[in-house]
Each structure stands twice: as C-alpha cells, then as structure tokens.
Amino acid sequence: MPVITCIDDLKRIYRRRVPKMFYDYCESGSWTEQTFRENTSDFDLLRLRQRVAVDISERSTAGQMIGQDVSMPVALAPVGLTGMQHADGEIKAARAAAEFGVPYTLSTMSICSIEDVAENTEAPFWFQVYTLTDDDYMRRLIDRAKAAKCSAIVITLDLQLLGQRHKDLKNGLSAPPKLTPKTLANLATKWAWGLEMLQTQRRSFGNLVGHVEGLEDPASLGAWTSQNFDLTLDWKRIETLMNMWGGKVILKGILDAEDAKMAAKLGADAIVVSNHGGRQLDGALSSIRMLGPIMDAVGDQVEVYLDSGIRSGQDVLKAMAMGAKGTMIGRAYVYGLGAMGQKGVTKALETIHKELDMSMALCGKRRLADVDRDILLVPEDFEGRWQG
Ligand code: GLV
C-alpha cells in the first residue's frame, strides 16, 4: 500500500487506474473551466488564525446535518456514474460513508440503483433527484426512494441544462464505454479496473434502465436524460416535488442570496451553496466566495452547506468558519474510490478528518461546533466589488 498523505496522492493513483473517459468526466469543468479552477484557488485566498496555549487534549469534529448525527459534517455529494469509477462504486462509497458516520448521497444518474444500494448497505442514505419532465417517472422515483427508506432527498436545482464539458464530447462518454479503437487502446492499460468491472453486472444507469419508457440503448442514456431534464422547473414545481416526498429536503445548487431566500421560504431543511463543482455556469463565482452573502441572507433560517472545491480538511474548516453548518465532497472521494475502491473512500475520509481535526486544534478550538469567523482571515475584497 503506497503512503497516502493527502487527497492529491489518491488522485494520482486514480488517474493511473481508471479509464481516461471517466477520469476526465470527474476532473473537468464546463467550457473554459474558470469556475472549476476558482472553486479551489479561492479557498487558498482564505487564511486560518493560529492560536496557542489552549488545552486541545479532548477534541470533537462531530455534529449534525439535518438532525442526523455525523462524525464530521462532510457528506458524500451525489456524483453521476460513480459505478464506472470502480465496480459497484455506489455501494462501496455508501458503505465507507456509513462506517465513517457521514451521509452518502446517491445520484439519480448512478450505476447501482436505489434498490441495489439499499439492499447492500445498512445505513439510510440520501437520494439526489434530477427533475425530469416525465411526471410518472418522477412519482415512481420518489416512491422508490421512500421504499428504500432514504432519509432525505437532495433536489438539484442547477442542472436543467447540462453544461458542456469539452472532454466528454471528445471522449464519447458513455456507460458502459463504447468499444471504439481509441477506447480499447486506453482500456488495455486499465486491466485491474476492467477485471473488476467484468465481475459485476452493474454497468449502466440503474435508476433509469427498465424504469423509463422507450429506452433501448442504455449507453445513450446520458443524451436521453439531458433531453428530458425539466426546463420548466420553477419554485412551484420544486414545492410540488417537496410535497410529493413529504420528508427532509435539501435544495442543492444555490449560488445567489435571492435564490437562497426563496429556498428558505419553501421550508427546505438545508440548502447547498454549490456551482456543481464548476460543471455548469462557467464564469459563476466560486461557492466559497458566495457563502458569506448567503449566510447573511438566510443563515438564521435554514442549514447552509457548501460544496464545490473542497479537497482538504482545511477547506472544510474554512467553510465551517465562514458559517456553513456542513459540507459536501464529490471529487475528493471519487479519487479515493477510483484509486482503491471502498478502502480508498475510507482513506479520503480519514485524510480529511485528520486535517480538519488537527487544523481546528491548531486554531485553538476543541470542538468544530465552536468554530466561527474568529479563526478565519478573509481578504477585504474576498466577495469582490461587482457592479450592478
Ligand atoms: C452531472 O451531475 C454532471 O455534473 O455530470
């Protein structure tokens, strides 16, 4: 086992092990990738305040997210095609999350189906919902999440249209991969990935195949879905979906204080400040920059989480110090999963936990619950001075 000291170490192994098409799918932003890059570089602009002479012998990163106990407030974000990063990837990631005591979110665009994940894991998970125009399908999807005893749904609001990622088009991204000469040449160098993939039957979109009318070619599901995303999605429809579900709801993909106010007004249990990991509106501000204004607008009305750009425990600490009640990681755990399956997800969580715990302590805090703006140094113009 190589010595893994940080998330980047996992990423290096992941890159070697997983077919290029799926590495690129994970590691891209839309168009010029400006927002994708700034999601991480803006975290670097924030600094932590070192404090000394504090008894830090007893420490805790524990907390709650939507009323659920968590060992640290870092949920696994919904990620499409996770089961292509590693055979049975969703089940493995969900198991690692449950063992670590953090929530797992299953994507609508997963490879393993809701039922499959429920049957093969113990802890309840969250289910992410893409809103499609097909109302019957939406009702059935929500009923399936209820039957699987999911403890919350996460409604994604920032993907009515799919942002263009150049590499996905060039690679001909599909699940399972289409066997062109180019793909075959790359797959030939990824034999460990391939051998595991051959041992599972879970190789196409489990929540859609067999559940959607007229779908003959599972590999074309990506294209099918993007044509069927609900362009009419508005607050009224979101409210309808929330009522259809009737349980805890997290609204994900909010990047503006006015939208945050609407989400709070609808009675969401939590919102996720997110630009979809820089995969949607290229040119949007980073999530961490938008967190402050959104906290000011709704921080006392709804739990605010942050995703997009977190690659370390220090990043988690900065987001919490800025006021977030929780965070989500996507790429950071996918690197681990692609690198070494369930063990890799555990390693990613352990790495982030260790960084979070030690950095918190070096800021003179014993409990994450006590962390506030006091430990954060924010450049004066961090939120930017934008006209209009
Ligand atoms: C879907 O959520 C994607 O970002 O590809």
Automatic annotation (TrEMBL):
FMN hydroxy acid dehydrogenase domain ranges (all copies): 1-381
Cofactor(s) in the UniProt record: FMN
Pfam families: FMN_dh (PF01070)
Superkingdom assignment: Bacteria
Entry keyword set: Flavoprotein, FMN, Oxidoreductase
SUPFAM superfamilies reported in the protein's UniProt record: FMN-linked oxidoreductases
Binding site for glyoxylate: Y25, R165, H276, R279
GO CC list: plasma membrane
GO-annotated molecular function: FMN binding; oxidoreductase activity, acting on CH-OH group of donors
Residues annotated to bind FMN: 78-80, 107, 128, 130, 156, 252, 274, 307-311, 330-331
Active site: H276 (proton acceptor)
Name of protein: Alpha-hydroxy-acid oxidizing protein
Species this protein is from: Harenicola maris
